[in-house]
Specification:
By secondary structure, the chain is an alpha+beta fold. The chain has twelve helices and 14 strands.
């Protein structure tokens, strides 16, 4: 294996794609590459990044926290995937216009696979609500635009509803569930919600967008506005981590899928999560997008069609698990620092993943 071409491309990308990044790769259950590039912050100061730097994972929270927590609750008999959401969250069967019979038939797997018919997003943080409970209720009462299970619409709202559902059935907040069901079994030490509340300093965390109110970048405070309104604790965004621990979670899921480990979930559970559930070409499993060469642009051309499971995050993060090639690839970056207007990551991601697979 030689990662020289990949290293050179990442070094060059620091100039215009992102201030900093961290990459970790597993192949055949072995860590084969890990390196950091660039800066954790460039404005107002220049601060180098390292493989120990925490990044805001943004939507990687969905597959790495929410999907796994739900899977564990299924294993423990507290939920089942074809259970109606309204059995756990009665308010989900309504909208602000009253009872909605279609929503009443929504099943938990539909939320996980982005096929519940919910909108992609809504500015919950602008509603002036005073509590997480009120925001959860607003999300749960959202109107749907298509019959549940009929089509895929990638939805943050679905994962906010899942957060309320998990917390209702367990009586615990999502950060506690993640610590107990994911972090502790894997021995994770640098994967947390609200890192500043867990002893991490701002200097250990990659900065994201400049907050107009303060005139300073966000450091250790979740970038996503709805997650921020939910006290940094949500299933759609909010998790912070280092690339090595993100890859460790991904590799553990891969080993579970292959029947070589049940430290995180059982083989049957991993195979259930990592298979198509909804959609055709633009297809989702439970928390993961199923890689299709013709549509999954961000992950390039060389992963295995239908046998790789991927996700991206708005802040410039991504993970892909290829069960055929036995590869886990993680890229964490702070491409939204100092502004989200930098969208060059869109062109960079497929090049990065092609080079990565070619290096193995």
């Amino acid at each position: 294996m030689s990662f020289n071409n990949l290293r050179g491309t990442l070094t060059h990308a620091v100039k215009d794609v992102f201030p900093g990044a961290s990459v970790t790769v597993y192949k055949d259950d072995k860590l084969v590459y890990e390196e950091a590039f660039g800066y954790a912050e460039t404005v107002p100061s220049r601060r180098r990044t390292s493989v120990e730097t925490l990044y805001d994972l943004a939507s990687l929270t969905k597959p790495l926290a929410t999907s796994i927590i739900v899977a564990k609750l299924v294993e423990e008999g507290l939920l089942y995937l074809k259970q109606r959401v309204s059995e756990v969250l009665p308010e989900y069967s309504t909208t602000n216009a009253g009872q909605d019979d279609l929503k009443s038939n929504t099943e938990i797997w539909m939320l996980l696979s982005h096929s519940a018919g919910l909108p992609a997003w809504a500015p919950l943080y602008k509603l002036g609500k005073n509590s997480r409970r009120e925001l959860f209720e607003e999300a749960a009462r959202s109107f749907i635009s298509s019959p549940p299970g009929s089509r895929v619409v990638y939805s943050d709202l679905g994962y906010i509803v899942l957060t309320a559902l998990m917390e209702n059935v367990t009586g615990e907040k999502i950060d506690s569930l993640f610590e107990k069901l994911v972090a502790k079994p894997l021995g994770l030490r640098r994967t947390v919600y609200n890192p500043l509340n867990h002893g991490f300093t701002e200097n250990e965390i990659a900065s994201t967008e400049i907050d107009p109110a303060a005139g300073l970048p966000l450091r250790g405070i979740v970038h996503d506005e709805n997650a921020r309104a939910l006290e940094g604790l949500s299933g759609h965004a909010g998790l912070f981590s280092v690339s090595g621990e993100v890859a460790l979670i991904g590799n553990e899921l891969l080993q579970s899928y292959l029947g070589k480990s049940d430290l995180l979930v059982k083989k049957a559970t991993a195979m259930t999560m990592l298979r198509p559930w909804a959609g055709d070409e633009y297809c989702y499993g439970l928390g993961w997008q199923v890689y299709r060469k013709t549509v999954t642009q961000a992950f390039g051309d060389l992963f295995t069609d239908g046998k790789a499971f991927c996700h991206t995050g708005f802040t410039g993060t991504s993970i892909c698990i290829d069960v055929e090639q036995r590869v886990v690839a993680v890229l964490l970056s702070n491409r939204v620092h100092p502004s989200r207007e930098n969208t060059r990551i869109m062109r960079f991601r497929p090049v990065f993943h092609n080079l990565l697979v070619s290096s193995l």
